[in-house]
Specification:
The chain has helices at about 55-65, 165-180, 220-240, 285-295, 300-310, 315-325, 325-340, 340-360, 370-385, 390-400, 405-410, 420-435, 435-440, 450-460, 465-475; strands at about 5-15, 70, 75, 75-80, 90-95, 100-110, 110-125, 130-135, 140-145, 150-160, 195-205, 215-220, 250-255, 260-265, 275, 285. It is of the alpha+beta class. α2 packs antiparallel against α3 (about 220-240). It has a nine-stranded mixed sheet with strand order 2-6-7-10-1-11-12-13-14. A three-stranded antiparallel sheet has the order 5-4-15, with no helix packed on it. It has a two-stranded antiparallel ribbon with strand order 3-16. It is elongated and about 95 Å long.
């Protein structure tokens, strides 16, 4: 029997607000344990939550960017369960009336274009964190760090439209790119800013009824999501083929073994005893507020990708690379605005700029060569003042010093030689010293041409205009 996987994803997006969702404590990562807490996020009796307006704006942005409808009225609910790092004994979330509903994302791959539905996006607070290690003065054990308690999250819940691990990764990458473009999440998966719960089941091909699903909790890398889903699909198929039954449960993925293991029985909604939070009034969002937020919506990757091809004439590959990162795209666009030809700017941004950034482990925001400096360098190439090869030498100096390219060219005497008389003299000397190769070329061995070009460029210390060299050299070799 052949089986078809059915996958739905629940993605937790940690929001880039300065303070928590219901109190004024900092959300800064890496602070000493329990140093960013107050009576509200510690769940002290009598402490009342106050909703952070910025969290709502970020939720609206996420909803608009993922084609969701923004609910004019949404309600916060208490999700009741016990866990050592949940100080109140419940989590403030949204249940029956979330802020965003009915969206979708389109993903591309070997399957073509596929639409993945988004059931809902809702706001909630994060729990704290258990730290299992040696605790100073206490020996081996577990500690509770509540700095993360009350940190604002969006939970993005997909429809069960995904049919493979590759589709799941494509969906996650697109969602990740969007929330980072919006500036509402830093996307740091290692720090848990973007993490995923995967609901996986299998059913016979052609069946209408989904199989029993298992949920894989808190997977925090694209690689691990793919591995976890593929393992779980294989585990469930083998279990069914051996006569067993898949149990609805929550499982954890172990990156070291590449396997999932059972954590606990899977809870249903009624197990959490949801009810509206009596300390928070229903959230009413006006049409004017939605329109105001929509006005701040940046151009998203999909639209930018299309525009780069249609308006700037870039190949699909270039457009995809440049739009993968918002800051890289903004750098490229600044070059074009400053006067750089689009294709030349794209080549240098994807080539030399990216190479140097990777070498030094820097982000594009820390690039010492500004778009204006790069544009000035490209102008020198276009005018024929320097060759493309010399330009790379100039670029390295610009990177190290921040100097204008024209000043570097003048200081180092790097102006390209286009004088035909000077170039002809060099060619004549090279040919006279290599008559054997001249005869080989004239005898039909045209590959020797590259040898002569190299010799001329070497003799001119790379300053000879390559176009002029090629034209004059060809004429002279042909006699």
């Amino acid at each position: 029997m052949k089986f078809q996987p059915v996958i739905g994803l629940e993605v937790h997006v940690q929001l880039l607000t300065n303070t928590k969702i219901f109190c004024g404590c900092s959300t800064k990562f890496g602070a000493s344990p329990n140093s960013q807490t107050c009576p509200v996020c510690l769940g002290m009796p009598g402490a009342l939550p106050v909703l952070n307006r910025k969290v709502v704006e970020y939720a609206i942005l996420a909803g608009l960017a993922t084609n969701c409808a923004i609910a004019p009225r949404s309600v916060f609910a208490r999700k009741n369960y016990f866990y050592p790092d949940l100080p109140k004994g419940y989590q403030i979330s949204q249940f029956e009336l979330p802020i965003c509903i009915g969206g979708h994302l389109d993903i591309e791959g070997e399957w073509g274009t596929k639409r993945i539905g988004i059931t809902r996006i809702h706001m909630e607070e994060d729990a704290g964190k258990l730290v299992h290690s040696d605790i100073p003065g206490m020996g081996s054990g577990s500690g509770v760090d509540l700095n993360r308690a009350c940190t604002p999250l969006l939970e993005v819940v997909s429809e069960p439209d995904i049919r493979s691990a590759d589709e799941a990764v494509a969906y996650l990458k697109k969602l990740h790119q969007i929330v980072v473009y919006l500036g509402i999440c830093d996307g740091n998966m290692e720090e848990g800013s973007f993490r995923c719960d995967a609901n996986v089941s299998v059913m016979p091909v052609g069946a209408d009824k989904f199989g029993t699903r298992a949920e894989i909790k808190n997977v925090n890398s694209f690689k691990f999501v793919k591995q976890a889903i593929e393992y779980e699909i294989e585990r469930q198929i083998e279990l069914i083929e051996d006569g067993g039954k898949v149990v609805q449960e929550t499982r954890l993925f172990n990156p070291d073994s590449g396997a999932t293991r059972s954590m606990r029985g899977k809870e249903e909604a009624h197990d959490y005893r949801y009810f509206p939070d009596p300390d928070l009034v229903p959230l009413v969002i006006s049409t004017d507020w939605v329109e105001e937020v929509q006005g701040s919506l940046p151009e998203l990757p999909e639209a930018k990708f299309k525009r780069y091809q249609e308006e700037l004439g870039l190949p699909a590959y270039d457009a995809e690379v440049l739009t993968a990162d918002r800051q890289l795209a903004e750098y490229f666009e600044a070059c074009v605005t400053a006067g750089s030809p689009a294709k030349a700017a794209a080549n240098w941004v994807m080539g030399e700029i990216t190479r140097k950034l990777n070498e030094e482990g820097k982000a594009i925001a820390a690039c010492p060569v500004t778009p204006q400096l790069l544009t000035a360098l490209l102008a020198l190439i276009e005018k024929g003042t320097i060759s493309g090869k010399i330009a790379k030498t100039v670029f390295d100096e610009m990177w190290a010093t921040g100097k204008e390219p024209a000043a570097i060219v003048e200081e180092k005497g790097l102006v390209q030689v286009s004088d035909t008389g000077e170039i002809e003299k060099i060619i004549d000397e090279i040919m006279a010293a290599n008559m054997g190769q001249v005869e080989e070329f004239r005898g039909g061995k045209e590959k020797v041409f590259g040898f002569f070009v190299g010799q001329v460029m070497r003799a001119s210390k790379g300053k000879a205009n390559p176009a002029v060299v090629n034209e004059m050299l060809l004429k002279k070799l042909k006699g």
